[in-house]
Amino acid sequence: MSATLTKQPLTTERSSSYAARIDHVSKSFGRPGAQQQVLDDIALDVAPGEFVCLLGASGCGKSTLLNLVAGLDKPTAGSIDVPGGRPALMFQEHALFPWLTAGKNIELALRMRGVPRGSRRTEAERLLGLVRLNGSYGKRVHELSGGMRQRVALARALAQDSKLLLMDEPFAALDAITRDVLHDELTRIWAETHVSVLFVTHNVREAVRLAQRVVLLSSRPGRIAREWDVEIPQPRRIEDAAVADLSVEITEQLRGEIRRHGQH
Amino acid sequence: MASTDTRSPGDPEPQHAASASPIDAGNTVNTVNAGRPGGAGGKGSAAGASDQLAGLEAGLDALETHTKTRVPLGRVLLDQVLPPVVAVALVLIAWQLAYHFEVKPHYQLPSPAEVARALQDKWLDGTLLGYVWESLSRGALGFAASLIIGTPLGLVVARVWFVRAAIGPILSGLQSLPSVAWVPAAIIWFGLTNSTIYAVVLLGAVPSIANGLVAGVDQIPPLFLRAGRTIGATGFAGIRHVLLPAALPGYIAGLKQGWAFSWRSLMAAELIATSPELGTGLGQLLDQARVDSDMSLVLAAILLILIVGIGIELLIFAPIERRVLRSRGLLASNR
Ligand SMILES: Nc1ncnc2c1ncn2[C@@H]1O[C@H](COP(=O)(O)OP(=O)(O)O)[C@@H](O)[C@H]1O
Ligand SMILES: [Mg+2]
């Protein structure tokens, strides 16, 4: 059975050829005179339904770029276009509100999106089901494990019903077993929801495990060093030989980028 | 190009989808058909794999979730009630001993029993609750007014940099000014009226409440504000759904302190501003007892002031604070 699913350009609104366009974006911090350029001329499109991993060493500007795409900050030069409206954003820390239950956290996102009161509860339960947390509606954030919190955070991000999901090292603080499981879940949910994902990580294997395309950023300033199309079919496992092979190749390149900085 | 518009569906049949995934010819990356180790031959059904994942996840969740054990009520009483009872008993014993050995002449230091008798007399002639009620209702009204003024004030100071720069330091400075210092000024402005008393209470409590809210807002992790903005809670919705709830622990601490300041200021005002039209609260009772050189009654009044102050704190603010902190997992459980 050729169970491939052809992704149409998203039907509603103006149909764009991209879910996000990062158009020659640069970003500097600091006062004029004592400026530090963090991002330099980044040009990157995320296609509708695409899963892109942004890979780079710590401090290379990955979070900065994601914040720009999320609209939390403005680029110094260049522009960013996200045609599907405000993107959803997931952080390394779950960022769930501790004064609300898991379900109410999701409902707040639904409410802000304008979902009518009557259907919020059902929708929140559905989203919890999607991340396999049925029955956790009334749980407080501190009663959940790290992996469960990140799943609730994912459900809250999905509650925004955004066409673009930005993820900033969302699994970096989890133990390896939990992270592995969440990789499987994310792949499944990505396939079910047709959302476009821009996923930031410094973990090469994680990038290869998840992405259709891996984009390597160099450091200081952050530039796109190289891209790889990952054609290994899903579902992948992090310990697959093909994942390992490509990871070795990318790691070599990444190390080369880092080594350059020790040479002056 | 990577714009593969096709993708394998996640759940329906992963094994098949895997082999059906489109692979552009001439790609730089070697494509390896990596089946799941152990799942070679595509035997396990998709549903099976999904079930396995769900099972694994359920196991992880169960392992990492802590079950709470409820402490029995008897234990709580023993832990929380016994220590203060012991402390009070020790104070009474020391007091009785001091009386017994006449550390001070009896008219200056009456015995605990004499103070109790003074209280009993006031109870029996039916005036005791009147004094308490007079002060308590003033305190409550003054506190409520301070709340209504202090909350928006704190919010504005916390969020508008200009206002903060302008009056922030004054507001925290006011906290260290004993509010009894306002009494003479208030008497000159308002005479011996209730306005004087309320003015002193407000000047004592509003800064604490406002400062508590400012501190609460300042302590909000920036991550919450960013998370709020990404889900679209901006402007008024951001204040209502993110800022205020996030600042609640600091705000409640401010309220608690605000009550203490209200009560303290009220007693100072009542003690000084005594006049027949003003009614008699605990402060006035205390002053009357001083005028009559009735040391038992002086001590009884002090005791009442203390009990009311502590009682409100224990019966109203402590439970609210505990509830808020516990629901956020911020309360270290006893032992
Ligand atoms: N608000 C800011 N002001 C000044 N410098 C910043 C700011 N945010 C990030 N930076 C700097 O930008 C660089 C990249 O940071 P970041 O995007 O967080 O890196 P990454 O997420 O890749 O680890 C770092 O050197 C950091 O010090
Ligand atoms: Mg980062």
TrEMBL record, chain A:
<dbReference type="InterPro" id="IPR003593">
    <property type="entry name" value="AAA+_ATPase"/>
</dbReference>
<dbReference type="InterPro" id="IPR017871">
    <property type="entry name" value="ABC_transporter-like_CS"/>
</dbReference>
<protein>
    <submittedName>
        <fullName>NitT/TauT family transport system ATP-binding protein</fullName>
    </submittedName>
</protein>
<dbReference type="Pfam" id="PF00005">
    <property type="entry name" value="ABC_tran"/>
</dbReference>
<dbReference type="GO" id="GO:0016887">
    <property type="term" value="F:ATP hydrolysis activity"/>
</dbReference>
<dbReference type="InterPro" id="IPR027417">
    <property type="entry name" value="P-loop_NTPase"/>
</dbReference>
<dbReference type="InterPro" id="IPR050166">
    <property type="entry name" value="ABC_transporter_ATP-bind"/>
</dbReference>
<dbReference type="GO" id="GO:0005524">
    <property type="term" value="F:ATP binding"/>
</dbReference>
<dbReference type="InterPro" id="IPR003439">
    <property type="entry name" value="ABC_transporter-like_ATP-bd"/>
</dbReference>
<keyword id="KW-0547">Nucleotide-binding</keyword>
<keyword id="KW-0813">Transport</keyword>
<feature type="domain" description="ABC transporter">
    <location>
        <begin position="20"/>
        <end position="244"/>
    </location>
</feature>
<keyword id="KW-0067">ATP-binding</keyword>
TrEMBL record, chain B:
<feature type="region of interest" description="Disordered">
    <location>
        <begin position="1"/>
        <end position="48"/>
    </location>
</feature>
<feature type="transmembrane region" description="Helical">
    <location>
        <begin position="198"/>
        <end position="218"/>
    </location>
</feature>
<keyword id="KW-1003">Cell membrane</keyword>
<feature type="transmembrane region" description="Helical">
    <location>
        <begin position="174"/>
        <end position="192"/>
    </location>
</feature>
<dbReference type="InterPro" id="IPR000515">
    <property type="entry name" value="MetI-like"/>
</dbReference>
<keyword id="KW-1133">Transmembrane helix</keyword>
<keyword id="KW-0472">Membrane</keyword>
<comment type="similarity">
    <text>Belongs to the binding-protein-dependent transport system permease family.</text>
</comment>
<keyword id="KW-0813">Transport</keyword>
<feature type="domain" description="ABC transmembrane type-1">
    <location>
        <begin position="132"/>
        <end position="316"/>
    </location>
</feature>
<feature type="transmembrane region" description="Helical">
    <location>
        <begin position="140"/>
        <end position="162"/>
    </location>
</feature>
<keyword id="KW-0812">Transmembrane</keyword>
<feature type="transmembrane region" description="Helical">
    <location>
        <begin position="295"/>
        <end position="318"/>
    </location>
</feature>
<feature type="compositionally biased region" description="Gly residues">
    <location>
        <begin position="36"/>
        <end position="45"/>
    </location>
</feature>
<dbReference type="GO" id="GO:0055085">
    <property type="term" value="P:transmembrane transport"/>
</dbReference>
<protein>
    <submittedName>
        <fullName>NitT/TauT family transport system permease protein</fullName>
    </submittedName>
</protein>
<feature type="transmembrane region" description="Helical">
    <location>
        <begin position="230"/>
        <end position="252"/>
    </location>
</feature>
<dbReference type="InterPro" id="IPR035906">
    <property type="entry name" value="MetI-like_sf"/>
</dbReference>
<feature type="transmembrane region" description="Helical">
    <location>
        <begin position="76"/>
        <end position="98"/>
    </location>
</feature>
<dbReference type="GO" id="GO:0005886">
    <property type="term" value="C:plasma membrane"/>
</dbReference>
<dbReference type="Pfam" id="PF00528">
    <property type="entry name" value="BPD_transp_1"/>
</dbReference>
